[in-house]
Amino acid sequence: MKARLPLWLWLALLAVGAFYSLTRVSVVSDMAAFLPRGEGLEQALLLDALREGPAARLIIVALGGTEDTVRLATASRAMADRLRDDTRFLRVANGPSALPAAEQERWFAHRYLLAPLPPEAFTADGLRTEMEARLRELSAPLPPLDKARLPADPQAVFRRVLAAWQEGNTPPLQHGVWFDAAGRQALLLLETRAGGFDLDAQEAARAAIVAAVEAGVSVELSGPGIIAAASRDIIRSEVQWLSALATLALLAILLIAYRSPRLLLLSALPLVAGIVAAVTMTGLVFGSLHGITLAFGITLLGVAIDYPLHLFSHLHGGEAPRHTLRRIWPTLRLGVASSAVGYLAMAASPFAGLAQLAVFTVSGLVAAALTVRWVLPLLLPAAPAMRLLPFAAGGAGRGLWTLPLLLLPALAYLLLTPRSLLETELSALSPVPPAWRALDERLRQAVGAPDVSRLLLLQGRSAEEVLQRSEVLAAALDALRTDGIIGGYRLPSQYLSAATTQSARAAALPDPVPLVAAVETARQGLPFRAGLFEPFLRDVEASRALAPLTPSAVADTVVGTRLSALLRPHGDGWLGLVPLYAVQDEAALLHWTAQAAPAVQYLNLRLAADQMVERFLRGAGGYLLAGVVLILLLLGAGLRDAARLARVVLPVLTALALTAALLHVLGAQLSLFHLVALLLVLGLGIDYGLFFARPVAAEEYARTGHAVTVCAISTASVFGILALSQIPVLHAIGSTVALGVVLSYGFARLVRTT
Length: 754
Prior knowledge:
Blueprint: H1 5-24, E1 27-28, H2 41-51, E2 58-64, H3 69-84, E3 89-93, H4 101-108, H5 111-114, H6 124-138, H7 157-165, E4 173-174, E5 177-178, E6 186-192, H8 199-211, E7 218-222, H9 224-258, H10 261-266, H11 268-286, E8 289-290, H12 291-300, H13 306-313, H14 321-344, H15 352-374, H16 376-379, H17 403-416, H18 434-447, E9 454-460, H19 463-482, E10 488-489, H20 499-508, H21 512-522, H22 534-544, H23 558-566, E11 567-570, E12 573-581, H24 586-595, E13 600-604, H25 605-639, H26 642-665, H27 672-692, H28 698-722, H29 728-750
Parallel strand pairs: 1-8
Antiparallel strand pairs: 2-6, 2-7, 3-6, 4-5, 9-12, 9-13, 10-12, 11-12
Helix pairs in contact: 1-11, 2-25, 6-21, 8-9, 9-28, 11-15, 12-15, 13-28, 14-15, 14-25, 14-27, 17-26, 25-26, 26-27, 26-29, 27-28, 27-29, 28-29
């Protein structure tokens, strides 16, 4: 019973860890964890735009499948009416007016406080000009005004308010709804309540849209959230069949190598224990587990599958498994320690994601190794000597001197290549198929959705101060548009004027008596009956007493939601975001910004995203190098033999450099995915080198060759299958590990000792 105590203790810890992992550890997907801490306001705005910004919540819908434009217009109206009642959507637009009727009435009552009017607007001449314009519009085939609003709004002030809220270049109208330029597809623009990173909500929104399509009408849709949710499904589907294929390959290899289903099942225990321990420890330290950490961490823990294979290959006939383990444990322990130390270097990283990945991997590797050390021997009976594969054994290698001839040119290429070594474009890492990107671009152009990656930033002590500065900025931006430097802009004050401006407009409204006289004079000779404009007179008088609208007062409206994306609190003050459309001359814009008030700042979020990716990769690469240095120090202290140290380190360093160089020569740029894969190659290569560098007898060395060969074949096969994927992340990891493992194994075998 005492001999079985480690097994019972291991089972108890595994059960507790599994329970904690399943019930207490939440998996999050906030990309902020994998970006530098404290990089300032620009990064915060970028992350917010990616997660919650209006552009991230946008869905573009195109209805087609028939040449009957009347039918498409009817289908567009039916879909819009149905989805406007769906709480998943903040906005559903398919034509000029996209506000709910109740909200329109609310804004209509405040129209005189929101729209700038010329000084002559309430004079008899000004009113007559507007009345004549309304008569001309009423006689047009498609009147641009609501006849029911004419008595209360003869100046069409509310139309000016709605026009100020119109974003970008609107599509052409057919039968009262938006169509593409060719007139073949009816278009709708939707905005979800959920952020673009809430993939479950985006999938639910997509299902609601598809369900709202009339029979006989086809639908195309795109948008950041829709693409992300669909990409997740593609990744999930591809991972399933690749994992199934890789699992079958691994099972076949291990069965051929060990001819024992029992050993096959036992080989999984260390990996299971490692995953449970990694999730538990990461949850205890960080409070949650990032989805990227989970995916990449399990990949890095793949080295743990080698630990039991070393034990199985070294079993002797009649020898107790615990005695076998004692013989190989010093080498196995040094391999685990060196891998753990290499990953621990990342724990000091300012990137929270890398620190979490370090804790995950180190705790998992240690748990897997302890499972092999204390648990597996209790589950293994005394076994006959393992029948070795013919290619697993072999004589001593004499190729140590050849490795620098490969390492130095590979390093020189990586340092001197004129082509960019790192993949710094965020969009290039996307798993989205090219056809989807082309569809998204086509629909964006059709609906006139602007590129909002460039913007100006206003800062103030209060929302009111930012709105005032926004109003002042309008004249300068108009000049930039006239000069062709920008194509357009969107100001917070276009949605809501500053309170001081609203109060000034209310105070400037005319008294009732002169306004009545002006109306009567203006309608003389026009076919408007007496008393028709009584609602207009009442509304003007009521507007004189209205209190200014504030951002908090309109927060529950569609327009308020759009305003909140451009006007938000930050620290002790407020920020105003001014998206710029179709920037044609960025140098001139930067020059103008430098001359403007210090409260105006220009931001290029697309450039900022690429720079953050580059900072992340360079920072992560630096911690990888620090990890390599720590590994060298640990191996030097553990081996205490310069020749053996060279035989362990040179093969894996040469494999890493040559793998990176070959991938780059073949057209790849190194991304986060390649970096994680190289970390795994580092751990595997050290393991191979340590075992091949052991000074043992020929029979024992043959068993070592068997173990390392099985490890290398199984790993290269599994990741080689992963390299077949068309998804960038899976292809990058698979191709890097497969190539790196083959090179690491070959070089380690080349320099092996007798």
